Amino acid sequence: MRFERLRDLRSSDGHPVPAYLLEPERPAGGIALAHGYGGAKEQMLGLAAHLAEAGFAACCPDLRGHGEHPALLGPGLLQDLEAAVGYCRRYGKVAALGHSLGGRLALMSSADLLIAVSPAIPKRPSDEGRAMLVTFGSTAVRTPDPAAILPLLQALGPVPDSPRPKLLLVAEGDVPSLLEGVAEASAALTAAVSFRRSASSCAHSAVRSHAKQRYCFYRHDKIYLSAWRSPRSRRSSRSGPSAASAGRPTRSGSPSPR
After folding, report:
1. Of 104, 112, 120, 123, the residue nearest 88 (C-alpha)
2. What predicted TM-score, i.e. pTM, was given to this entire model?
3. Domain-by-domain residue ranges, the chain?
4. pLDDT digits (tens, 9 = 90+) for 208-255
5. Element (H, E) at 245
6. Is CATH 3.40.50.1820 the classification given to domain 2-246?
7. CA neighbor of 48 nearest in space, from 30, 63, 66
8. Do the beta carbons of residue 246 and residue 255 sit within 8 Å?
9. What is the phi/psi pair of residue 165, to 5°?
10. Nearest Cα to 197, choosing from 139, 258, 255, 137?
11. What is d(CA 236, CA 248) in angstroms, rounded to the nearest whole number?
Protein backbone atom coordinates (compact mmCIF):
# COMPACT_ATOMS: atom_id res chain seq x y z
CA MET A 1 0.00 0.00 0.00
CA ARG A 2 1.27 3.47 -0.88
CA PHE A 3 0.77 6.44 1.46
CA GLU A 4 1.22 9.88 -0.10
CA ARG A 5 0.60 13.51 0.74
CA LEU A 6 -1.11 15.11 -2.28
CA ARG A 7 0.28 18.56 -2.99
CA ASP A 8 -1.33 19.39 -6.34
CA LEU A 9 -5.02 19.01 -5.49
CA ARG A 10 -7.04 22.17 -6.15
CA SER A 11 -10.68 23.12 -5.81
CA SER A 12 -12.55 24.57 -8.77
CA ASP A 13 -12.26 28.06 -7.23
CA GLY A 14 -8.46 27.79 -7.18
CA HIS A 15 -7.66 26.90 -3.57
CA PRO A 16 -5.04 24.24 -2.84
CA VAL A 17 -6.67 21.33 -0.99
CA PRO A 18 -4.27 19.46 1.34
CA ALA A 19 -4.98 15.73 1.27
CA TYR A 20 -3.61 12.28 2.04
CA LEU A 21 -3.89 9.31 -0.31
CA LEU A 22 -3.79 5.63 0.61
CA GLU A 23 -3.47 3.53 -2.54
CA PRO A 24 -3.48 -0.28 -2.66
CA GLU A 25 -1.57 -2.13 -5.35
CA ARG A 26 -4.63 -2.71 -7.56
CA PRO A 27 -7.40 -0.29 -6.59
CA ALA A 28 -10.96 -1.52 -7.14
CA GLY A 29 -12.23 2.06 -7.11
CA GLY A 30 -11.72 5.33 -5.28
CA ILE A 31 -13.22 6.80 -2.11
CA ALA A 32 -13.10 10.47 -1.08
CA LEU A 33 -13.51 10.85 2.70
CA ALA A 34 -14.79 14.12 4.19
CA HIS A 35 -14.33 14.96 7.88
CA GLY A 36 -16.89 16.73 10.04
CA TYR A 37 -17.07 20.28 11.32
CA GLY A 38 -14.05 20.94 13.53
CA GLY A 39 -12.27 17.88 12.15
CA ALA A 40 -9.36 17.32 9.79
CA LYS A 41 -8.12 14.81 7.25
CA GLU A 42 -6.02 13.04 9.88
CA GLN A 43 -9.18 11.96 11.71
CA MET A 44 -10.30 9.96 8.67
CA LEU A 45 -7.03 8.04 8.22
CA GLY A 46 -8.10 5.04 10.33
CA LEU A 47 -11.15 4.40 8.18
CA ALA A 48 -9.15 5.19 5.04
CA ALA A 49 -6.61 2.51 6.02
CA HIS A 50 -9.39 -0.09 6.44
CA LEU A 51 -10.85 0.82 3.06
CA ALA A 52 -7.44 0.72 1.38
CA GLU A 53 -6.86 -2.73 2.87
CA ALA A 54 -10.20 -3.74 1.31
CA GLY A 55 -8.87 -2.64 -2.10
CA PHE A 56 -10.04 0.96 -2.49
CA ALA A 57 -7.85 4.02 -3.03
CA ALA A 58 -8.81 6.45 -0.24
CA CYS A 59 -8.31 10.21 -0.45
CA CYS A 60 -8.74 12.34 2.71
CA PRO A 61 -8.85 16.12 2.07
CA ASP A 62 -8.99 19.04 4.49
CA LEU A 63 -12.09 21.20 4.03
CA ARG A 64 -11.59 24.96 4.03
CA GLY A 65 -11.31 26.44 7.49
CA HIS A 66 -9.98 23.11 8.79
CA GLY A 67 -6.61 21.43 9.17
CA GLU A 68 -4.00 22.69 6.73
CA HIS A 69 -6.44 24.21 4.22
CA PRO A 70 -5.23 27.79 3.60
CA ALA A 71 -8.70 29.32 3.21
CA LEU A 72 -11.02 30.43 6.01
CA LEU A 73 -14.35 28.70 6.48
CA GLY A 74 -16.69 29.89 3.75
CA PRO A 75 -18.63 28.95 0.63
CA GLY A 76 -16.96 26.27 -1.44
CA LEU A 77 -16.84 23.41 1.08
CA LEU A 78 -18.38 21.10 -1.51
CA GLN A 79 -15.75 22.17 -4.04
CA ASP A 80 -13.02 20.90 -1.71
CA LEU A 81 -14.64 17.46 -1.55
CA GLU A 82 -15.25 17.50 -5.30
CA ALA A 83 -11.51 18.02 -5.82
CA ALA A 84 -10.92 14.69 -4.05
CA VAL A 85 -13.78 13.01 -5.94
CA GLY A 86 -12.29 14.18 -9.23
CA TYR A 87 -8.85 12.90 -8.27
CA CYS A 88 -10.29 9.47 -7.43
CA ARG A 89 -11.87 9.15 -10.89
CA ARG A 90 -8.56 7.73 -12.13
CA TYR A 91 -9.37 4.56 -10.17
CA GLY A 92 -12.77 3.92 -11.79
CA LYS A 93 -15.97 4.28 -9.81
CA VAL A 94 -15.88 6.68 -6.87
CA ALA A 95 -17.65 6.81 -3.50
CA ALA A 96 -17.91 9.91 -1.33
CA LEU A 97 -17.98 9.14 2.38
CA GLY A 98 -18.41 11.78 5.05
CA HIS A 99 -19.17 12.30 8.72
CA SER A 100 -21.51 15.04 10.01
CA LEU A 101 -20.79 18.10 7.83
CA GLY A 102 -18.76 15.82 5.57
CA GLY A 103 -21.76 13.49 5.34
CA ARG A 104 -23.95 16.35 4.14
CA LEU A 105 -21.34 17.19 1.50
CA ALA A 106 -20.98 13.53 0.47
CA LEU A 107 -24.72 13.31 -0.23
CA MET A 108 -24.45 16.42 -2.42
CA SER A 109 -21.35 15.30 -4.31
CA SER A 110 -21.00 13.93 -7.84
CA ALA A 111 -19.64 10.54 -6.66
CA ASP A 112 -21.17 7.26 -7.84
CA LEU A 113 -21.94 6.06 -4.31
CA LEU A 114 -22.91 8.48 -1.53
CA ILE A 115 -22.24 7.46 2.09
CA ALA A 116 -23.07 9.63 5.09
CA VAL A 117 -22.36 8.96 8.78
CA SER A 118 -24.61 11.12 11.00
CA PRO A 119 -24.98 13.66 8.18
CA ALA A 120 -25.79 17.26 9.09
CA ILE A 121 -29.28 17.22 7.59
CA PRO A 122 -31.48 17.93 10.62
CA LYS A 123 -35.19 18.34 10.04
CA ARG A 124 -35.07 21.63 11.96
CA PRO A 125 -32.37 23.59 13.83
CA SER A 126 -31.93 22.29 17.38
CA ASP A 127 -30.57 24.07 20.42
CA GLU A 128 -28.11 21.26 21.14
CA GLY A 129 -26.92 21.10 17.54
CA ARG A 130 -26.46 24.87 17.40
CA ALA A 131 -24.51 24.87 20.68
CA MET A 132 -22.28 22.00 19.51
CA LEU A 133 -21.46 23.70 16.19
CA VAL A 134 -20.88 27.18 17.58
CA THR A 135 -19.23 26.38 20.93
CA PHE A 136 -17.34 23.09 20.59
CA GLY A 137 -16.37 23.22 16.94
CA SER A 138 -15.17 26.82 16.79
CA THR A 139 -11.82 26.17 18.49
CA ALA A 140 -10.72 23.91 15.63
CA VAL A 141 -12.13 26.00 12.77
CA ARG A 142 -10.54 29.10 11.28
CA THR A 143 -13.38 31.57 10.95
CA PRO A 144 -13.95 35.17 12.06
CA ASP A 145 -17.44 34.19 13.24
CA PRO A 146 -18.07 30.93 15.15
CA ALA A 147 -21.69 30.98 13.98
CA ALA A 148 -20.74 31.24 10.28
CA ILE A 149 -21.33 27.52 9.72
CA LEU A 150 -25.09 27.93 10.26
CA PRO A 151 -25.79 30.18 7.23
CA LEU A 152 -23.31 28.10 5.22
CA LEU A 153 -25.35 24.97 5.91
CA GLN A 154 -28.53 26.80 4.93
CA ALA A 155 -26.90 28.05 1.73
CA LEU A 156 -26.06 24.49 0.69
CA GLY A 157 -29.77 23.86 0.22
CA PRO A 158 -31.55 20.50 0.35
CA VAL A 159 -29.84 17.25 -0.59
CA PRO A 160 -30.53 16.73 -4.32
CA ASP A 161 -32.11 13.49 -5.46
CA SER A 162 -30.51 11.17 -7.99
CA PRO A 163 -30.62 7.47 -8.90
CA ARG A 164 -27.16 6.92 -7.38
CA PRO A 165 -27.12 4.60 -4.32
CA LYS A 166 -26.97 6.27 -0.92
CA LEU A 167 -26.14 4.85 2.51
CA LEU A 168 -26.94 6.80 5.69
CA LEU A 169 -25.71 5.64 9.11
CA VAL A 170 -26.80 7.18 12.42
CA ALA A 171 -26.64 6.31 16.11
CA GLU A 172 -29.56 6.02 18.53
CA GLY A 173 -27.90 8.71 20.66
CA ASP A 174 -27.74 11.24 17.83
CA VAL A 175 -29.44 14.64 18.03
CA PRO A 176 -33.21 13.96 17.68
CA SER A 177 -33.70 16.50 14.89
CA LEU A 178 -30.84 14.86 12.98
CA LEU A 179 -32.47 11.43 13.34
CA GLU A 180 -35.72 12.87 12.02
CA GLY A 181 -33.93 14.52 9.11
CA VAL A 182 -32.11 11.33 8.17
CA ALA A 183 -35.34 9.29 8.39
CA GLU A 184 -37.10 11.75 6.10
CA ALA A 185 -34.19 11.86 3.66
CA SER A 186 -33.84 8.08 3.43
CA ALA A 187 -37.57 7.80 2.73
CA ALA A 188 -37.63 10.59 0.16
CA LEU A 189 -34.37 10.02 -1.72
CA THR A 190 -34.10 7.48 -4.50
CA ALA A 191 -31.97 4.38 -3.80
CA ALA A 192 -31.34 5.43 -0.19
CA VAL A 193 -30.77 2.97 2.67
CA SER A 194 -30.31 3.90 6.33
CA PHE A 195 -29.04 2.04 9.40
CA ARG A 196 -29.34 3.03 13.05
CA ARG A 197 -26.71 1.75 15.47
CA SER A 198 -26.92 1.57 19.27
CA ALA A 199 -25.70 4.60 21.17
CA SER A 200 -23.18 2.47 23.07
CA SER A 201 -21.38 1.51 19.87
CA CYS A 202 -21.39 4.83 18.02
CA ALA A 203 -22.72 8.13 19.34
CA HIS A 204 -22.44 11.41 17.45
CA SER A 205 -22.27 13.54 20.59
CA ALA A 206 -19.43 11.69 22.37
CA VAL A 207 -15.98 12.58 21.09
CA ARG A 208 -14.42 9.35 22.32
CA SER A 209 -16.87 7.26 20.29
CA HIS A 210 -16.11 8.80 16.89
CA ALA A 211 -13.52 6.14 16.06
CA LYS A 212 -15.98 3.42 17.09
CA GLN A 213 -18.64 4.99 14.91
CA ARG A 214 -16.46 4.92 11.84
CA TYR A 215 -15.42 1.33 12.61
CA CYS A 216 -19.09 0.33 12.90
CA PHE A 217 -19.65 1.91 9.51
CA TYR A 218 -16.79 -0.04 7.96
CA ARG A 219 -17.97 -3.40 9.25
CA HIS A 220 -21.49 -2.99 7.88
CA ASP A 221 -20.62 -1.25 4.65
CA LYS A 222 -17.94 -3.46 3.13
CA ILE A 223 -20.70 -5.65 1.65
CA TYR A 224 -22.36 -2.53 0.26
CA LEU A 225 -19.12 -1.32 -1.30
CA SER A 226 -18.49 -4.66 -3.03
CA ALA A 227 -21.50 -4.09 -5.29
CA TRP A 228 -19.87 -1.28 -7.27
CA ARG A 229 -16.26 -2.40 -7.57
CA SER A 230 -14.69 -1.49 -10.90
CA PRO A 231 -15.14 -4.20 -13.58
CA ARG A 232 -11.43 -4.94 -13.72
CA SER A 233 -11.39 -5.88 -10.02
CA ARG A 234 -14.53 -8.01 -10.15
CA ARG A 235 -12.82 -10.51 -12.43
CA SER A 236 -10.22 -11.21 -9.76
CA SER A 237 -12.57 -11.35 -6.75
CA ARG A 238 -15.71 -13.11 -5.70
CA SER A 239 -18.81 -11.18 -6.65
CA GLY A 240 -20.62 -9.74 -3.65
CA PRO A 241 -24.35 -9.25 -3.16
CA SER A 242 -26.14 -6.45 -4.92
CA ALA A 243 -26.35 -3.02 -3.29
CA ALA A 244 -30.08 -3.50 -2.87
CA SER A 245 -29.77 -6.81 -1.04
CA ALA A 246 -26.72 -5.75 0.99
CA GLY A 247 -28.36 -2.52 2.06
CA ARG A 248 -31.76 -3.91 3.03
CA PRO A 249 -32.24 -3.52 6.79
CA THR A 250 -33.97 -6.18 8.84
CA ARG A 251 -36.89 -5.32 11.11
CA SER A 252 -34.47 -4.63 13.96
CA GLY A 253 -32.64 -2.03 11.86
CA SER A 254 -29.52 -4.15 11.43
CA PRO A 255 -28.12 -5.12 8.03
CA SER A 256 -29.35 -8.39 6.61
CA PRO A 257 -26.87 -11.29 7.08
CA ARG A 258 -24.49 -12.27 4.31
Report:
1. 112
2. 0.80
3. 2-246
4. 333 333 333 444 455 456 555 555 544 444 333 333 333 344 333 433
5. helix 243-246
6. yes
7. 30
8. yes
9. -65, 145
10. 255
11. 26
